């Protein structure tokens, strides 16, 4: 296995942790096109997989992962349910013509475009439901 002692010493010399280096690389505009950032992003699935396989992951990584996913879904739902999302209407101001012209399939297509993560989650639930029935 590759010896990382030189890397550890360099990080110590720079007074930065491995996590601090990664966070800086991923959040600083100065490094957004750096080859290390490109590599981290290209291999993010592999990196997340390695985190999930670590023995401490169920106590530290998994809760953070669920929190990130939850926030992504909540942001999309917030947009869908906001007035800017285009799905608000007042029943008292809705005409018969508007109700007749309402198309559930069109609404579903727009929701899929507006909230792809949420739509994917709903699709996953649908598949699970299909398997169980």
Structure overview:
The chain is an all-alpha fold and 133 residues long. Helix content is 69%, strand content 0%. It has helices at 5-13, 18-27, 35-42, 44-53, 61-81, 96-101, 104-114, 116-132. Helix 7 (104-114) packs across helix 8 (116-132). The radius of gyration is 23 Å and the shape is elongated. The N and C termini lie far apart (49 Å). The mean pLDDT is 88.
Please sum up the structure shown:
This protein is mostly helical and 133 residues long. It is 69% helix and 0% strand.
Key features of this structure:
0% strand; 133 residues; elongated
Topology:
Blueprint: H1 5-13, H2 18-27, H3 35-42, H4 44-53, H5 61-81, H6 96-101, H7 104-114, H8 116-132
Helix pairs in contact: 7-8
Distance between the termini: 49 Å
* Helix vs. strand class: mainly alpha
Low-confidence stretches: none
Number of helices: 8
Evaluate the radius of gyration.
23 Å
Q: What is the 3D form?
A: elongated
> What's the main sheet like?
none
Classify the beta-strand content into a percent band.
under 5%
The number of strands is: 0
Instruction: Determine the fraction of residues in helical runs and give it as a percent range.
Output: 55-70%
**Could you state the order of secondary-structure elements as H and E?**
HHHHHHHH
Average of pLDDT: 88
